[in-house]
């Protein structure tokens, strides 16, 4: 969508906005990132197709221009690759529906296929153990083994085929290749060619990018493995001119990133993108949205883009929303929980502002009872919204309220001093203080039951498996704690008289 289109669009969604004095700034800010991609990470938390159909119009209205789709094991790999798939993988028809829904909302789609590191979903399998660089670690593949190249090419070919004529770019990942140049095959090759591990890395990604281009797709790669590679080394390779690079940093973005962008520009990468985050980076088991962290991250990226405006033209920004830290990790913030913070970040990227007026626009768009509590982050009053999947956000807020109640129970001196294993073992405690220790427990447990009711909606947002996992990870341990505490209190309160000291023979 061009600048004029965008202005009309904003005028439609945020009526009256054009009358504000921010108009010039608004269009200028927006052009710093022509593309604003929202990352959909299906790693063990696949959004259902019906949910995506319902939420894509909202993503468009929030200011997204496209989607970076990380299928991982949800892609319907077939033939020799059929064992790579999760048992609940999408069907080819699901992929078509996803693409149709993206099309009808003017969202470009860029699939992301890992081709080097973070191939846990492939390398964990018995079939592919020989492809590991380190036999003990299913993180990165050996780039010097013929099977690795056969598998990776087949993956790219299959993804390209199911997106035929509907995509122009493909993201080939290649971040965080933690193990490289360690196996005997790689060592022999490095010795024979007088290569460093950087040379080995560049050789593999060059093979992949060349293959990607043979499929008529422009490759994009994560940048972290390039950060330390000397610019003269990059210049001598033919990799950069045919490849887009995507710089990622999810906090403390500043001069370092600006310098890297200039370096990549001088190394003649075909296109330069950046990536911020809206969820999935604060901690591997965080559930509540982190408004300030992600807003600041996106504000910083906009500043960097603005400082380089006359030197480097960026292709766009991807707002990443990680489902897990890696394939084996626990679930991070759920997608619908990230929607308000995503709206906030997109708003700032489009208009350069997140003032009270902007927060009010977001409140209206997401149909919430109150604006995002940016000014008072400690404010824990419930935020109810009407966007697709918002009930899971209510569940998570209530779980957070429960956790506060649990902390307040656990921090009393009654709890700390009168319900210890010693008290329990000897049936020996002060009945009044035991009662005080658990006086707030029934209300807390009622709240926890409401969390369980509210989170059932996750079945529609994702599927029953994600729901089961969330309950097992985040709800059940709280339930177990509450029940155990109740049992201890009941056992202690059963006794009306107490023995003479000492309690020991
Ligand atoms: C897939 O896994 C099954 C069961 O482990 C195995 O028998 C089969 O050979 C594998 N297929 C391929 C194509 O690797
Ligand atoms: C998508 O873009 C086309 C042409 O640019 C426009 O006609 C159409 O209204 C847009 N649709 C949406 C949902 O924004
Ligand atoms: C191997 O490469 C290094 C630079 O990486 C160079 O200094 C050295 O001369 C090379 N050795 C041979 C035998 O080519
Ligand atoms: C780079 O490409 C040029 C021309 O296409 C070719 O002559 C040269 O050998 C290539 N260099 C490498 C390192 O592949
Ligand atoms: C504590 O009470 C329970 C019954 O509630 C009893 O079975 C147990 O033997 C008692 N323990 C001691 C150390 O008296």
UniProtKB/TrEMBL annotation:
Signal peptide start-end: 1-25
Gene3D superfamilies from the UniProt entry: Glycosidases (3.20.20.80)
GO biological process entries: carbohydrate metabolic process
GO molecular function, one term: beta-N-acetylhexosaminidase activity
Domain called Glycoside hydrolase family 20 catalytic: residue spans: 86-252
Enzyme Commission (EC) number: 3.2.1.52
Top-level enzyme category: hydrolase
Catalytic activity: Hydrolysis of terminal non-reducing N-acetyl-D-hexosamine residues in N-acetyl-beta-D-hexosaminides
Top-level taxonomic group: Eukaryota
Entry keywords, A to Z: Hydrolase, Signal
PANTHER family with a match to the protein in the record: BCDNA.GH04120
Similarity field: Belongs to the glycosyl hydrolase 20 family.
Protein name: beta-N-acetylhexosaminidase
The species this protein was found in: Galendromus occidentalis (western predatory mite)
Native organism taxonomy: Eukaryota, Metazoa, Ecdysozoa, Arthropoda, Chelicerata
